[in-house]
Amino acid sequence: MDIVNDHLAVKARLLTPTDNGFLLLAAEIGGWAGPFPLPARPRSRVLAQIGPLCSRLARRDDVAEATAFSAVLRPPGEGSRLLHRAGVRPARYDIVVLIRTGGVADLEALRTDPARLELVALLENTGRHVHITAASNPARIADVDHNADSWFLFNYFYCRDRQTVFDVWQYTAGWFQRKTALPDSALMQPLTGEPDDYSLINHASWPSLRTFLPSLLFRPTFRSFVLANFSANEIAAQPIIYRRLR
Fold first, then answer.
1. How many Cα atoms within 13 Å fall on the side-chain side of residue 14?
2. Could you tell me the domains of the chain?
3. Residue 62 near residue 232, CB atoms below 8 Å
4. Percent of residues, the chain, with pLDDT higher than 70
5. What angle do CA 20, 136, 196 make, to 5 degrees?
6. pTM
7. Could you tell me the CA-to-CA distances from 150 to 71, 196, 210, 241 in Å, in that order?
8. Which of 142-146, 175-179, 196-200, 235-239 has the lowest mean pLDDT?
9. Can you tell me the mean pLDDT for 60-68?
C-alpha cells in the first residue's frame, strides 16, 4: 500500500465488526445521463414490485431487515481506465436490495426462499446486468441506519488485492469522518465462492446532501488525498448514492 499525502492520513475510528450476514442484489435497469439516472419505465415497474418481496423476506426469523434502494446520483469516482484494462464492467446499478441476516450462516437458508427467488427472477428478467453476492462484514464505523430518511452510499471497489482496498479504505474513511461527519459505514466482503467482481463494497449514509456533496465537489483534499490514494493503489472506486424505497 502506498499512501499519497500521508500528512492527511488518519485512520477511521471503527467498531468491532458485526456478525451479520449480507445478501446484496444490484441491478442495472435504466440508463444514465452523466451522473444522473434517466427515467425508465422498467425501473418503475420493478420498484413497484420490490416492496412486497422485501416485506416477505423481512418476516423471516433469520432476517434482520430487507431494504430496497433506488439510485439518484453517481458522485466523482476513480478508476475507469483500470476497469477498462481489466475488462471489468463499470458499476451502474440503479436498484439495490440489501438483506441483512442475523449471522453469516443464515445466508445459506435464503437461497431457496420463494421471495428471494422471485426477486432474483424479477431483476434478471428486467435488468441489463445483475450482481448478486453474499458477504460478511470485515469492518464498520457503525451499522447503517435504514430507518432514517438519509442518502445512502454503495461504493463498489475493484482491485486485484483485497487487503490493499481494506488498508486504503481505513484512511479514506477517516477523511470522510473528519470532513463530512460520516456517521456510519459498513464494509461488505464477498464470501468464498461468491462473485467477487468487487473486492469490497462499502455501504454508508449521510443525513442530507449538504453534509457530504460540497466536500466531494469543492474540497481539494478529496481529489488530492481520497481519489489520489485510490489511483496510486490501483483501486477503482465506483460510488453511487441511493434513496431508500419507501
1. 20
2. 14-244 (3.30.70.100)
3. no
4. 100
5. 150
6. 0.96
7. 13, 28, 12, 10
8. 196-200
9. 97
